[in-house]
Amino acid sequence: MNIEHFLADDQLNKQQILDLIALARDIKQQPKGYRYALAGKSVAMIFEKPSLRTHVSFDIGINKLGGHALYLGQQNGKLGERERVSDYAKNLSCYADAIVARVFSHSSIEQLAEHGSVPVINALCDTYHPCQALADFVTLAENFPELEKVKLAYIGDANNVANSLMLMAAIVGVDFTLACPEGFAPEDKVYNKALELSQASGAKLRITNDIAALGPQDALYTDTWISMGDNRNITDVLATFKPFQVDHKLMKITGASIVMHCQPVHLEEEITTELFDSELSVAFQSAENRMWAQNAVLVTLLAD
Ligand code: NVA
Rounded to an integer, what distance in angstroms lies between the CA atom of residue 166 and that of residue 161? Predict the structure, then answer.
């Protein structure tokens, strides 16, 4: 597969996504077969924001492929302040074979890719979270034998995770409904792109402010109502989003058999504790799949 970077979901076509899902599942099934896939390779990981799953799954995942991961937190100051993002990219390219970056602004990811000479992987930015979406699609493929027949509904804030899921669903051909309060819909640029992609794949794409209008679904997905870097007022947010809490009742009404969450979870906000802790929740399956999905991306970008 010929991909240079992993920056945003819409840079991949359907076959490339299906190939990455298949590769992730193969690495998961027989990790020993990939033990030396990244031998002698180093990956520099920039984190402008906190992380548990992304940091650990990349670090341990790279180790499982025989490579070396280097964590770069904020010890060098904020990205772009002590030195330009372009210089950061050029310097890291002198030593590392790839750059993983979790940043505030998507433009930082674009600059790293533009000015560096090694593959760049987006480990979350304000607009996208493609590693999460890929892991979630691995989880969907594990739970539903015919991925393209899945109906996925995202309930809550149209954030980076929602954008990436919407784009990936549109590319792969998965029906996608997003239910959010008024004023919290996806940005036009991302929505229009997803609409165009869904027309090509045949996926049905729907945005609604009416949670009662979700209709039959296979999987429900939710995420925090306040993302890292958002300055929203918590009291306002809790009041606005309260009707969009995902619970057992919504699972029953929609007929969904699984509930997904990228974590960290805010219990009793976007999801009830009872549902998150129930057997319907595949949050930890997706958390594990983060590592296999990212390893599929790393192998695709870096293996000789
Ligand atoms: N939307 C969340 C995802 C965290 C993994 C955030 O950006 O904070």
Answer: 9
Sorted by sequence, the CB contacts under 8 Å of residue 290 that are 6+ apart come out as 53, 54, 57, 131, 132, 135
CB atoms within 10 A of CB 88: 24
- Is any atom of ligand 1 closer than 6 Å to the C-beta of 98? no
pLDDT tens, position by position, for the chain (304 residues)? Answer: 678 999 999 999 999 999 999 999 999 999 999 999 999 999 999 999 999 999 999 999 999 999 999 999 987 777 888 899 999 999 999 999 999 999 999 999 999 999 999 999 999 999 999 999 999 999 999 999 999 999 999 999 999 999 999 999 999 999 999 999 999 999 999 999 999 999 999 999 999 999 999 999 999 999 999 999 999 999 999 999 999 999 999 999 999 999 999 999 999 999 999 999 999 999 999 999 999 999 999 999 997 7
Please tell me the distance between residue 252's alpha carbon and the centre of ligand 1 in angstroms: 27
Q: How far apart are CA 73 and CA 257, in angstroms?
A: 39
CB of 262 shorter than 6 A to ligand 1: yes
What is the reported pTM?
A: 0.98
